[in-house]
Amino acid sequence: MSSVALRSLARGLAKTPAAASALAQNRAISTTTPVAAGHDDVMEKWPAEKFDKHFIDYFNRPEIDGWEVRKALTELHDFDVVPDPKVVEAALRAIRRVNDFSLAVRFLEAIKIKCGPPKAREIVYPWIIKEVRPLLDELGISTPEELGYDKPELYIPNPEWYWEHKWYKTYGMDKLPNFQI
Amino acid sequence: MLSRQLALPRLAVRSIQTSAAANSGHHIEHWWGPEKAAGRELVGFGSNGDNTYQDRIDYWYPAIRFRKEDDVSRPLREKEKGDWKNLSLEDKKILYRYSFRQTLSEFEAPRGYWKPITAGVMAIISLATFYAIFLHVYVYPPLPPTFQNEYKEAVIDKMLTLEKGQFLGPAAHFDYEKKQWK
Fold it and tell me: Domain check: are A72 and A93 in the same one?
């Protein structure tokens, strides 16, 4: 809350010094609670170039490690945004640098998620893959389609919902007397 | 306690707490994250920083790998550090399955649980229906005669004769001149 107040105060100061003091007095008492405090929408309002540059710069840091790559990917996943091919390329290069192949495939799946409904996914996702195809070939990354992951490969039952006794044997799960590491 | 506060005022200051503890309700002895992770590599933050594996559509990158490193994955991890073009398709799939439990298409696939759920709901509804029928037939006394049609018609006849219900009852719909319903 205070950061929002400070930011608007700073904006007011930048405009006119005269209006700033009045603004400061008005903002001193806040009678409403900000919606979604702590989750500001500052980056949502950035222009697309600035938004992309923010992530590309982060991915291009030479000292980036695997934890930070996942952090950046998670934050990118948080926005209502289909990543630009340039951002995808920067992310894939960062993933290559931290030597985590599975994360690259996972990220390509995340693009599918962000594309939204199936119709948009059919149009947007192949276009992004087409744009980054040279990089995929250069790094040797396989798309989920090439790995056969566009169709379900395994069925994963949920034991809390439904479980047949014979499935213990099917899935190679021995019943243990207690929790064992 | 009060005497101690009076005798040792400096200690008394310490015994009065005006603010709640910052981590109230969260005690480290209840945190089983590392035990649950059970040796799996911690690779990220996940959804809340806990060392648990979750497949979530909003936090698509779990905090830990799905499987522990073993003799299958260790040589592949070494191979992964080199050129990825040298990885075969099988290697890539194994690497994926060691890091993640489900692919996106598996996550989104219908799991078929609507069938046992529907079966359960239908079973409960049918049992309740049979129980109601059982009660109706064997337990409850027969319905009183006021529920029979003859009795209801007799009541209306009586109301017409007594000219009751001129405004809202049956008499309002009966033409007494022509002796028939309006």
Answer: yes
- Inter-chain contact B61–A106, Cβ cutoff 8 Å? yes
Bridge-partner residues for A32, per DSSP? none
Query: Would you call A73 and B61 a contact, using CB atoms and an 8 Å cutoff?
Result: yes
Q: The pTM is what?
A: 0.69
CA distances from B167 to B164, B171, B173 (A): 9, 8, 9
How many domains, in total, are found in chain A? 2
Portion 27-46 of B in contact with A at CB < 8 A: 35, 38-39, 43-45
| Model confidence pLDDT, tens digit, residues B172-182 | 999 999 989 98
Per-residue pLDDT of B104-156, as tens digits, reads 999 999 988 899 999 999 999 999 999 999 999 999 999 999 999 999 999 99
| A1 in Cβ contact with A35 (< 8 Å) | no
Residue B42: closest CA among B53, B29, B31 = B53
Neighbours of A87 (CB within 10 A): 23
Do residues B33 and B52 lie in contact, with contact meaning Cβ atoms separated by under 8 Å? yes
A130 shares a domain with A68: yes
Which domain does A138 fall in, by range? Answer: 44-181
Q: Report the pLDDT value the prediction gives residue A170, as an integer from 0 to 100.
A: 80
Residue B64: strand pairing partners: B42
